[in-house]
User: Fold this.
Amino acid sequence: MKFLRRLYDWVLHWADTPYAVPALFLLAFAESSFFPVPPDILLIALAISIPTRSFRYAMVCTAGSIIGGVVGYIIGFYGYEAIGRPIVEFYHAQGIMSAIKMKYDQFGFWGVLVAAITPIPYKVFTISSGFFRFDLWLFLLASVIGRSLRFFAVGALIWKFGAPVKGFIDRYFNLLGYIFIILLVGGFIVIKYLL
Assistant:
């Protein structure tokens, strides 16, 4: 948990810089197409620093994530061999691509929507959506709904409860770190075995 604690503290420091909002946008953008760290960490840190701006930060995070998702789609559509395949291999998700393809015909929209809301690695779905030529407008609709629900829920919790959330995170950081890791690994397992 030391690494996660350092990452958490590093992310918190952005809240006190003039680069906080651009950093949130870039992290959300990158996470949707290739980067492993979810933007929720920075979103929570910024929202805790100024709870009255929670919804503004949620909007920035949502916009960055959706645009990053479109980039992931483009990577899958036009650049899978050069860019997409190395990303998929980095996450050991080669077998997951086949599972996603089998379910797209039946549950494509719902699969993207669930991935956009949950800890299931969204980037795998964005790249897969482009690679398998999933309808771009349905992909965008699922992304807008899912990412908005996810990030605005975080913003609403911070807006409502504010500083006590930070105290809770600080007090139970190790436990929350383990839960985060379990959810992340669980997301890969769900994709691999349940799709």
Observations:
- The chain has a mean pLDDT of 80.
- The chain has one domain: 2-194.
- Residues 166 and 176 are 12 Å apart (CA to CA).
- The first helix runs from residue 2 to 14.
